Amino acid sequence: MNSFTPLPHEWMLASIIGFFIAVLQVWNWSVTWGFTFALFFTLMFIASVVSMGAVGSEEEELVELAVHHPEVRAGKHRRRA
Asked: pTM for the whole thing?
């Protein structure tokens, strides 16, 4: 069972803000540190985008957890009352 949890939205926000601070402020003080921070925050942003794409629906997760239940095997969980 593959279970993915998306990263919190603050992660993406911090990566965007951190990237701009690294490029606009830190780069003026030190090119090495500016590049390092920009690369780090870029990787953070990519990780947050990848984690959003790997998330399944809550219903799929519940069905995977409850496959032993007879109603789930019969497909009755999809029928709305």
From this structure: 0.62
